[in-house]
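If it is no trouble, can you show me the amino acids of a protein and the tokens describing how it folds?
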Amino acid sequence: MEIDCEPEDSLISSFDEDCVQLGGVKDMRLEAEAVVSDVLFAVTEMYVSQSLDCALDVAYINVEIREGTRFCLELTEAGLRVVGYAFDQVDESLSTQYHETVYSLLDTLSPGYRAAFGNALLQRLERLKQNGQ
């Protein structure tokens, strides 16, 4: 079983907390925007696809990780998963694993993300330590 760790709320917020509910259904486009804002600092490029159709139940996110590889991600109530290996590309034949959080997904795809995320936490801890003394 995979356990997701998130940094403290002041550094990165959970996109579930920022979502907008419409009649009990999350608006996945707004969820996707929140996902992007949470982790943009730790990837090369990331944005919600304007080419692929988003709906209340699905949104697509393009991401280029620090290693230069590009992915198209699908966001649904089930979580996030890779659906293509280029921006705005959905390969229906792919059956990739769903991840509950963007942190978990990027942690499996990108050592550079993992390092950037860890560095951001260390910097935050250093600032807290300096302010506390």
